[in-house]
Amino acid sequence: xxxxxxxxxxxxxxxxxxxxxxxxxxxxxxxxxxxxxxxxxxxxxxxxxxxxxxxxxxxxxxxxxxxxxxxxxxxxxxxxxxxxxxxxxxxxxxxxxxxxxxxxxxxxxxxxxxxxxxxxxxxxxxxxxxxxxxxxxxxxxxxxxxxxxxxxxxxxxxxxxxxxxxxxxxxxxxxxxxxxxxxxxxxxxxxxxxxxxxxxxxxxxxxxxxxxxxxxxxxxxxxxxxxxxxxxxxxxxxxxxxxxxxxxxxxxxxxxxxxxxxxxxxxxxxxxxxxxxxxxxxxxxxxxxxxxxxxxxxxxxxxxxxxxxxxxxxxxxxxxxxxxxxxxxxxxxxxxxxxxxxxxxxxxxxxxxxxxxxxxxxxxxxxxxxxxxxxxxxxxxxxxxxxxxxxxxxxxxxxxxxxxxxxxx
Length: 409
Known about the structure:
The protein is an alpha+beta fold and 409 residues long. Helix content is 15%, strand content 41%. The chain is globular.
């Protein structure tokens, strides 16, 4: 019995001091201050701002009607670090119904919610924008002004040329993405998946962009699609090239609600001049000319309550700063990832910080943040990091911390 009491007493002593188990110190919270950009003079009270930003974290419940009007948009960013991304909240009208959407910059699609009428938005939309039908078709229309496309997309004619008859202006339906796959035929047979599939995401509303093909100086082919501000460029493997290139465009318009993929284009590559190919089978063409690439497209659209069209997300941006009265150290890249990893496995203490306060460590992940006061006590190898919100104190190795920061504490 005495042994049992002794063990309990020893455990109480150990638990009253430094913990022996590692815990996660990371607990990032929404930014305390935002830079706000809006196209209307909306009075953003603290309560309204909190409500709007809360939508950006909730599971979506609705889809925007195809017929609607965008009444206002507000974008939230970090006051200094644009690379941390943004949250764009929009307010919509469709008949008597109102909707709020939020697009987080690290996600593929916006979150949509039906809401009651919000006075702050209703009062600044006296002009009453007209509702439009965004439709549900994806169309590709030949673009005759090839020179304008070359200028807009900075095509360097020294290194690549736009392939004739390959330039199309596209109009997308409501939010979703075009999933592109490539079927390659060589010498009369299908060669399998030699080109990785692509995914071209488009936002809500009527979206317009350009798609075109170019041939590089080394004869490789590129597929480009998007707008001047954001576009995707896929370079096909060097083994799929030829001196002569001919485009056979197939589907001009198709309904995005239809099931299955549609054949959009065929690329015929050869080392000899190519005749008309429009009525010939791809396998037959490849047996004559060598290579035929079929480009197939499928429109993917998330339904109500679905957050993304694929499981993949964009990379999460992380930053860290360490500030003292005399210096500021900025951290990003691999060292930031290692710092986050280090802070996810630390020891804690039940006592308050002791010694001397040296500075403040601030962590950022997208539009969330966490601050620690950094304390040091002479003769000890561990630093004390106190979460400024919870006042909880964590212990971290000083040398490892300084190595990641690239500066002395």
